Give the backbone structure.
Amino acid sequence: MGITGRNGSGKTNLLDAIYYLCFTKSYFSSTEAQNVLYHTNGFRLEGQLERPGKADKVVCTLKDGKKDVALNDDSYDKFSRHIGQFPAVMIAPDDAEIILGGSEERRRWLDALLSQLHPGYLEHLIAYQKVLLQRNGLLKAIAETGQNQDALLEIFDDQLAEHGVPVFEARQAFLGPFIPRVQALYDYLAGTHEVVDIKYQSHLLDGDFRRQLIHNQLKDKALQRTSAGVHRDDLQFLLNGHPMKSSASQGQRKSFLFALKLAQYEVIRQYKQFPPLLLLDDVFEKLDQDRVSRLINLVKSDGYGQVFITDTHAERLLAAFGADGDIIQLIHM
């Protein structure tokens, strides 16, 4: 489906609304207040989302700061239980931050992917973040009061290890078979072969997490924060053995980013046994004509399901699909 219109007409908002129904949050806004129209106190999103053999109604509402997500009129007690029900992959202009930004951007990307595949992963991740906040709060209290809280600190250490190790193991196990997918898609989109790689960086690669927490207790008390753990993990993207952030050209980074997201799409499709939604925002402004042609040939193949593409020019979108232009349903904003 093509979504066309001038800049500022709401094309990206429509994509984000679809994403919100799948993930119970915006792809672009970090706070709910940014999703609310000025001078209003909330919003309501409703959509009919299909899975093989079944159509479901999803409703997300926010009113006076209270949020509710319902599947077929049954509200969730935990929003996390909705994640993975309706998988989706978004590719947007700001995704360059996955390569160029800090480690948090890369963890967020990986966590969103793995959470759609494994509900238990998201549960461990949420529990880990909760314990991490408690442990950091305790470290600050120790620094302020000088009281001995080692017994409580050890309890938090146990809980961090309990939830952190499964997160680490899931991340590590996933990346091995994932990298060849990225390589194949990069070669196809770029039209040439260059070696791409993803290196997983984690304190847990150095040994037992629980022992590291004990070893770092004095350091953590001085810093008033937890210095080791999966919350510090990072991914290093390499091109021909060199860091992509500093050595790759803009075109190489774009090819890699699209390969990364399309490999994500393939993995989800294989795991779920049905294709996720693919949301492409403003791709024609990000890729040259050759890469656009290869991308369109890929997403209109049998392995892909429903695709939403935004562009400012309907004619350009139709031309990109060429003889298959009749398969596109256009919405003009």
